[in-house]
């Protein structure tokens, strides 16, 4: 490993791999740093819309079979709200991926030098110069680069260093902790669908993958009990004995339009930038923002402008669209068609109430 790179990308999720791929294909010398060893686990349903599938196939080539879940196609979600159920079909034919093998495939095809098991712990950035400190156990090393892409997910260290005020005011308070329960249970559920639950004081997402049910819950102390009660009452869930418990985080700082795309020569992509849709989904936005970050860096070379300015311009339409969808239930919201909600919540004020309930 060298100590100097054109670009260091922190985080080998979809956003980081997309940025690394875009830059290495243009001849940039790229280091992709990942804190975990690949393949790593990531709590995620892996519902990938057709638009994102196409992006991956265009940039990385054919996705190997072992990256897909056996049920393969993603059809949409059912929203459970009080005693009603609403179908939210997926926008086009999507796929269900297995994150460990999918993300490893992306990293291997990224064209970057991949450094696994090293965590970015701090950094200093100036105009076209970044010094990044990497740590592993008791060891540390410093790498230098001209550009940095922080794609280190919901609790981004890069964001904390490059925009400390933004981190304190928006990112840290906007981070949601989820309790993740996973187990082999009998549940009459079609794995091509996600389940969204919304109730007083919280919500949950559930999915069945490789014959295991995963339930990710957020909200008050009562939320877990409420989510399980819905599954028992509405779907006949009978036992939760032997469930594995874990924790995940989701970055909802953009709930009020507070995205952070970086500063100067250090850009943020994916969930590190707050890029999730109103349902908290982020694979499509991660891939897209990684791509745009790479293009902004390339376009800034030789020009008297920082990549951050170009990246903001490129991302503006996407951010506007995300905001618009959050405010207009009834059409496409994220990767889902919400027409059934328009029918169920006819008047504008009822829809405004529902919006707050769903995305507030
Ligand atoms: C329960 C659940 C279900 C979901 N289901 C879906 C879904 O079906 N569809 C969808 O589109 N989205 C879904 N999401 C959201 C989706 O998982 C994320 O939005 C997406 O993974 C974001 O991609 P990313 O590349 O920005 O970050 P990540 O995928 O989180 O990748 C970040 C990487 O950075 C690494 N990293 C972190 N800190 C450091 C550091 N300091 N140094 C080095 N490396 C670091 C991490 O180990 C990780 O590998 C779900 C989320 C949850 C919690």
Features:
binds flavin-adenine dinucleotide, 18 strands, 10 helices, 360 residues, FAD/NAD(P)-binding domain, eight-stranded mixed beta sheet
Written overview of the protein:
- The longest helix is centred in the C-terminal third of the chain and has 21 residues, at 307-327.
- The protein has 360 residues and is an alpha/beta fold.
- It has a domain at 4-74 and 92-174 and 254-327: FAD/NAD(P)-binding domain, CATH 3.50.50.60.
- The protein has helices at 14-24, 50-60, 99-108, 157-162, 164-171, 223-235, 283-300, 307-327, 339-344, 348-359; strands at 4-10, 30-34, 47-48, 68-81, 84-97, 113-116, 119-126, 129-136, 139-150, 175-183, 193-199, 202-209, 212-219, 244-251, 262-263, 266-268, 332-333, 336-337.
- β8 and β9 (139-150) form a beta hairpin.
- Residues 10-16, 33-36, 40, 42-47, 119-120, 151-153, 157, 178, 205, 216, 248, 250, 270-272, 276, 281-284, 286 line the site of flavin-adenine dinucleotide.
In CATH, the homologous superfamily of the domain at 4-74 and 92-174 and 254-327 goes by the name FAD/NAD(P)-binding domain
Percentage of residues assigned to helices: 25-40%
Going by helix content, strand content and strand pairing, the class is: alpha/beta
Low-confidence stretches: none
Ligand species: flavin-adenine dinucleotide
CATH class of the domain at 4-74 and 92-174 and 254-327: Alpha Beta
Strand content: 25-35%
Name the CATH architecture of the domain at 4-74 and 92-174 and 254-327: 3-Layer(bba) Sandwich
Q: Strand-and-helix sequence, N→C?
A: EHEEHEEHEEEEHHEEEEHEEEHHEEHH
Helices, by number, come to: 10
**Overall 3D form:** globular
Mean pLDDT: 93
* Total number of beta strands: 18
> Would you tell me which CATH topology of the domain at 4-74 and 92-174 and 254-327 applies?
FAD/NAD(P)-binding domain
Alpha carbon gap, first and last residue: 45 Å
What is the CA-based Rg, rounded? 20 Å
- Largest sheet report: 8 strands, mixed
